[in-house]
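Throughout our pipeline, every protein is held as a single compact record rather than as scattered files. This encoding replaces a full spatial description with a residue-level series of whole-number codes. The remainder of this section carries one protein's record, kept here as part of the documentation.
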Amino acid sequence: MESKTIEINKMEKIIIVIEKSKDHFGAYSENCDGIYAAGSSIDDVKADTLDAIRLLKENLPAERWPEPLKVEYEIEWKLDVPSFLEYYSHFMSLSGMEKMTGINQKQLSNYLNHRSKPRKRQTERIKNGIHRFAEELLSITL
């Protein structure tokens, strides 16, 4: 009996980090050189990131493309704490975020407005609180 090998196309993941400054958002790739973007909102910086990828592929010969762009890829967006708080403040209040994370509203507001930067432990508390909330939402059946 002849054995057949099934080739599975591996999809690359391009990780894009979005960070908020006082007057704009910036983005860069953690694992794919040459991808940088900026914008006045997260949606703008996402669109600019896609445009940066398009321009890289249009203006460079394929052999000079970063490796992740040479195959099928998906984009994973990572937000820093101020970006996350600003982007999702339209859906979740700081009061709700306090309940999810155990970090008081005033401190969350300081992170949002760049009056202070969260330490790694605080960032983990925020991330874990959001993940717990997301898991609860995923478990709901209607």
In short: The mean pLDDT is 91. The helical segments are 42-59, 81-88, 94-101, 105-112, 120-138. The first strand starts at residue 12 and ends at 20.
